[in-house]
Structure formats: C-alpha cells, structure tokens
Amino acid sequence: MLREGQATAIQRADYQAPAWWIETVDLAFDLDPAKTRVLNKMRIRRNPDVPAQALRLDGDELNLARVMVNGGGSSFKMDGNQLVLENLPEGHEPLDLEIFTTCSPIQNTKLMGLYVSEGTFFTQCEAEGFRRITYFLDRPDVMAMYTVTLRASKNDYPVLLSNGNLVDEGDLDDGRHFAKWVDPHKKPCYLFALVAGKLVAREQKIKSRAGRDHLLQVYVRPGDLEKTEHAMNSLMHSVAWDEARFGLSLDLDRFMIVATSDFNMGAMENKGLNIFNTKYVLASQSTATDVDFANVESVVGHEYFHNWTGNRITCRDWFQLSLKEGLTVFRDQEFSMDMAGTPSARAVKRIEDVRVLRTVQFPEDAGPMAHPVRPDSYIEINNFYTVTIYEKGSEVVRMQHNLVGRDGFAEGMKLYFDRHDGSAVTCDDFVQAMADANPASPLTQHLQQFKRWYSQSGTPLVKASGQYDPTACTYTLTLSQSCAATADQPEKLPFVIPVEMGLLGQDGAALPLQLQGEAVTSSSHTLVLTQAEQTWVFANVAQAPVPSLLRGFSAPVVLEYDFSDAELLTQLAHDTDAFNRWEAGQRLALRYALQAIRTQGEVASDVMPAAFISALRDVLRHPTLDAAYKDLVLTLPSESYMAEQLEVVDPQRIHAVRESMRQQLAVALQADWAWAFDAHSDTGAYRPDPVSAGRRSLTGSALLMLCLAARDSSDTLWPGKTYQRFKDAGNMTDRFNALSALVYSGATLAQPALERFHALFRNEPLVIDKWFSLQAGACDRGGNVLPAVKQLLKHPDFSLKNPNRARSLIFSYCSANPGAFHRADAAGYVFWSDRVLELDAINPQVAARLARGLDRWRKLAEPYRTAAREAIARVAAKPDLSNDVREVVTRALGKDLA
Ligand code: TRP
Ligand code: ZN
C-alpha cells in the first residue's frame, strides 16, 4: 500500500520525450521571506514528434493563484502535485501560458527551491527544486531562454542577482528596487538561480585567450571579503586551464560565484551564477587548512568546468547524471593534477582520489545501494548523487582517456561538442563520440563491451598469476576477471579492463617489456583484458620478475596477486610507478592487519614485522621523496577499508588492531618521527602549495605519533611541545594538526586546547565546524565519545538546521568514528536512528545521507548486526518518512521497493 505522497520507482526504460517544449520563460519575483510572489510567463509549443497530450506541469509546496492561456482564463485540474491543462488549443502554434504562485522561502528548511539563509535569498534547483519555485516541466531535456525580474526591499536586499546579463535596474516605490537579468544561453530549469541580499564582491576583469573580456565576481557576506582571494585565483586558473587543455572558453560576459553557509552539498553550477557552500569558497591562512585550500580549488574548478560539461551539453534525464558528473570530476581531478605540477604531487593527488574510491565507492557497490554508473531506476533522485555516479563515473571516463590516449581524448571531446552542443544527451552519446574520434583505438574495437561499465554495477575482481621460464627466458602473465552479484543485479558479463603494468628485477630495476612476437615497448605497457581469462607472454626476460600491475590504478577494480612479502618490499623500495610503490606498502600493512584481526585473543603489540617497519623508516628518511608522499605511505589503511576486506566485521577488533599498529609505528619510529618533525617544520611564509602543504602534513603526523609514543613512556615533552605549537601556530593547518594530535592521543592537554580553540574562533562558523567534528571523531576511551557528542548537541553553537553543522557533529560520529559508534550496548545506533528521524522532518536530503551510515550492517558481527538492523527497522517503521529516507532504509533492509 502506498501512503499519500509516496512515490514509486522511476525507470530509465520509461523515458519519453516531452509532449511540450517551453521556448521562453519570463519570471518576475516579488521577494518576501514569508510570501514571495512569482509570475511565470512561458511561451510553450507542442512537440510535433510526440502524439498530442495534456500539459502536465510539476509543482511542490506551491500556492497557486492564477492560470491564464493566451491572455484569458483557462480550465485546469490538479493531479497530485501536477497542474494539468487538458484543453489547450490544438495545433503547433506557440501559446502564452501565465502562472501566478506564491511560496514561503523562510519556511523552506529543505534548502531546495527558494530559501532564506542568514537574511539572504538563495535558490537550489538541481535536481528537482525548480518545481518548488513555479509550475514547470521540471526535467533537464526541456531547455528554454530565461528573462528574470527581481523586486525586493532595497535596504534589506541591495544585491539582486540571476543568470546571464544585467540589462536593467532601478528604484521602485516603497523603498523597493528591481533588477532585470537576461541569460543569453538556453538552459534546463535546474540551472536557474537567483540570489538577493546584503553581499559584497571581489571582482576581477580578465581577457580570455580568444580576446574576449569577462568580469569575474565572488560574492560573500560583508566581512568575508579577505577570505575570497584563493577562490578568485582558483577561478582564474580554471578559466585558463579549460582553454589551454580543451580549447573551451568562457561563453559569458559575467561569471559569478556566491557563497552561502546553508547548503545541502558542496556547490552548484547554475549558469553564470554558481552557488557555493562557504566551506568551498572562504579560505584564509588563519581559518582554513591546506586541505580546505585544495578543496576550494578543486570545487571552484569542478563547477566552472560544468559550464561546458553539464550546461552547454546537459543530461537527457537524471539517469544520465554521470554524463556531466563523472566527466566533470575527471576534469577537476586533471585540473588539480596539472596545477600541482611535479610528478610526485600528481601521484599524491591520484592516491588521494583512489583512496576515496576504494573506501567509499567500493563499499557502495558491495552494499544495498549498489547501482550502475547509469542507474536503471530510482525513487528519489537526490539519493543518486553518489560516489558511484561521481567517482566511479570519473574512473570510467579516465579509462576511456587511457584507451584512446591524451590527444585522442581531446579529439573525442571536440567531436562531442561538435555533435551535441546546446542539447540534452545520454552517456552513450559521450562514449560514441569518444570512439568515433578514435577509430583505431581499443575503445572503439571493444565499444559495446566497454559500455558495460555504464550498465553493470559492482567492482570487478582481477586475479593475476605469473610464471617465469628461466630456460626460455619468458614470463607468462595470466589475468582473469569476475564480478560478484550485487544487490541490484545477479548476473555480470566481462568488462573491458585496461591494466597498465611493468616488470621489476629482483633488485627493483625496471625491466624492458617485450610481448612475444612484438617489439620492445618501454618499461610500462597497457594490457586490455576483455575476456574472462587471458594470457600474455613476455620474451627476453632475463630474471624472474616482480610484476607491477594496475599502475596508476588504471581501472576501478580489485587486483589480487599472490605477492610474497619480499616482492612487496621490493616494490615499496623501488617501483618507478609512484602509485604502486604506495600500494605495495598498503598491501603489506593490510596483510598484517587482517592476520591480526582474524587471530583470536588479545591484539599483539608487534602486528607488523621488523622488515616492514624498517622499510617504512627508509621511506620516512628518504632523501628525495616528497613529504606529502611519505605521509601517504606512512598512513595505515583506514578501518573502513580493512572492514571491506572481511566477510564478518567486528568493528571493535578492527579498531583495536589499527590502534595497535599505529602505536607500534609511533614507538618503533619514535626517533625518526622526531627527526621528521624537525626536518620538515620550516615551511616558510604560508603558501598552500603542494610542497609546503606536504611538509605540514608530515609534521602533523609526526606530532600525533610522538604524542602517541609519549603515552607509553609517560613522557610529557611532546604533548607539551604540541600544545605550544597549537598556541603559536601561524596558520590553521599547523594549529589544527597540533590540536588533533592532542585529541587523538587522548592527552590531558586536549581539553584546555579545545577550550582555547573555541574561544579564539567563536566567530568563524567553518572553524567551529572543525571544533565539533574533531570532538565527535575523538579516540574513544571507555565509551566517552557518545556522551560528549550528546552534550555537544545542546551546545549553543549547535544547530540541526545548518547542514554543515549537522554533518560536523553527527556524521563525524556516526560515519567517521567506527570505534566509538559501534558500541556493544547499541547506544550509537539508537543515537543514529533518533537523529535520522529528527533530521528527516527538517531536511530529508541530509537525513538520507545520514541514513546511509548503516548500509553495511549485514557484514557486522553479533551483537552489532542485530542491534543495527533493529535501529534501521525503527526508522523504517516511522509513518510519513520522506521518500529520501524511505528509499535508503527500505533498501538497507533488503525489502522490495514500492
Ligand atoms: N551539481 C552539483 C555538483 O556536483 C551537485 C549539487 C549541488 C546538488 N547541490 C545539489 C545535487 C543539491 C542535488 C541537490 O556540482
Ligand atoms: Zn558536479
């Protein structure tokens, strides 16, 4: 039985072209927080390619006052949330349709549609928020030309912004004023935006390569202006990069970014008027860490790159979401790598991206929300803004890049724009353009099979085995692939998997590669695995080699090979592929961790053997490796990554093992950490560049290790030094790293430091988010974190309505602190279910994200498993759940979707 308002699943196969087109839209807003009036005048036309149908317009929480057709009254009816006009004039002449509605932005806590944040009006229309502003064909394949007039109190809302160009502005009666904006490009309604409020802007005039003048603006609240320099620089770099790398120029006179502190996601690519979460705009050396600076650059790039990949060419329907998101993530990752410059800094960025994929996307693919990069059905589209769509989607684009080469990829992009500029298309259209532009490539040769990356969910498993024949001097490499059934699909067919590889000698030197019957290539080669099993023979291999497989993580798969410890140590010391060098260390650490997790009894204090510790010491002391890279090698795999490797997960056991391993690293390398701290401490005047940021991150890790080691020896030197650094730090990175070291090591100085930190930054919301988040992620001694989190819920600075704040406290505890969250008394799960329900009444989109936190409950050992299922069932049993949360918990329980 469906409750009222309960949606059913939407199927990709049901796609139909719209029965009507909307050619132009003229919107007039009388902005008022309690009651905003919206007059929507559209020119509409029947789609001649589709049998005649009624016009059905989407709406959500609107008050309808008037409908007029061609200047006169018209009959209409409501069907659920849709406004239906059945008796419109026949024929294909355009019609004028006028709809007058009101809405209440101040009551809009979902932050979708038109809402108020700190006295300023903002909109968020992707994916289906425009229907909360006016009745419309709210689907991305209906693209229209927009004219927008904003009217509001001049005193309260001096700045009035919308998409495109400002063509008129002036004063009205009663202290009101107006601004009229015209967007020169047609667009789907999800790219509409308006902003009205008291804002100030940093401005920059630029000239593009093509010689066109543009005005760039970053709008923030007064007082935040000095935190916008980095965002503006990032925007200028983005504009230059897209021209240089892809020949794509800015197509607008004016490009605006506006920051708001109330935002469901990271940022939004509205045409010419990007709206950002303040977290991804504001950055100053005293309030933002190096990671924040890097995130600002990458999100500014991401949204700017959408201007072509998403806006000029958009999605036919929301099942094609990865068409714009996967491609745009690929572009922002490449942008960050190109900005980073050195090969080593590029490798660091690649490792960070792969880490996200493996710790978040692989679990998604193995859990109840598994879906292909191009899903087949959904209940709530907001639930499909996932790591699969974004990060795996980017990997699928990256594989195409690897299969056609860098130049071939640029050709493919060119053909994609030649064919589809100005239209709404599918993922198939993208791959087809890539293939057609590269007729001789393996992508084109295996095109139909390659497309399985879009249609099949699940993470493929590639098993490798090698055989060396010393008499024939040949090395035979066999690769096989399989993919386990996923929650959504029982059957999988083989994928096209590019496996970049090389061979190392026992001393670590790169061996020349020569496939039998072919010429010597170089020291690296890409094998294209297409069958269930395939074999390659390498000739003139002078010694038994160590294979270096899946270099640069050339495909989003799990690679299994029976490496000996010695082989992995060789790779860790010598592999020329920086990714695999890091990977070798991770494989060893994971191997020892899993052994200790599976062993009964108390966790040993020497989980890792001396040879591995000493190899890590060599990396830490290495004369030429970058600090950022060393820091990644010395960081153990996360608890969630370890959990994914196990059939049955005991979160407390995993936590205890990882803690013990970290303690072992801290104690065994104590002198080396002290050296590393001193050797990397001077990073000069603050600059967020990768080299000095790497030094800061390594010294931060060193401090934590030294504080951990101090616990064993009850020495107070390093905790004292750490507190000193916390007090004296000249930038937020050093300050926050020192504070974290105190908190994570459970130092007694942690509490006074936290208090001091709050006092210093009480007026900096983004820093207060860090303060909440750090405490929610603290090390759990005797179950002390949950009571602290509950206490913090009552803190005057806490608010459930602000998504950043809710995430900083609740998500940091429920989703990022497994050792504290998975309690044998189930109190963590009860807390989770209370918060999911509480949030659902305010903001279903954010609630559904939190609801994902128990996706992997089936893998848990008892008593966690039963307790977690009960908590999910408790949420599912609540009447009037949002579609968002209902879809997530229903899938988690494994029930049929309504
Ligand atoms: N399109 C945005 C991006 O990836 C994502 C986004 C921002 C979003 N806000 C949203 C998606 C709200 C759904 C709902 O750049
Ligand atoms: Zn995006």
From TrEMBL:
Instruction: Give the catalysed reaction(s), semicolon-separated.
Output: Release of an N-terminal amino acid, Xaa-|-Yaa- from a peptide, amide or arylamide. Xaa is preferably Ala, but may be most amino acids including Pro (slow action). When a terminal hydrophobic residue is followed by a prolyl residue, the two may be released as an intact Xaa-Pro dipeptide
Q: What is its EC number?
A: 3.4.11.2
Q: Which UniProt keywords apply?
A: Aminopeptidase, Hydrolase, Metal-binding, Metalloprotease, Protease, Zinc
Q: Which cofactor does it need?
A: Zn(2+)
Keyword flag 4Fe-4S: no
- What family name appears in the similarity comment? Belongs to the peptidase M1 family.
The entry's protein name is Aminopeptidase N
Q: Which organism is it from?
A: Comamonas avium
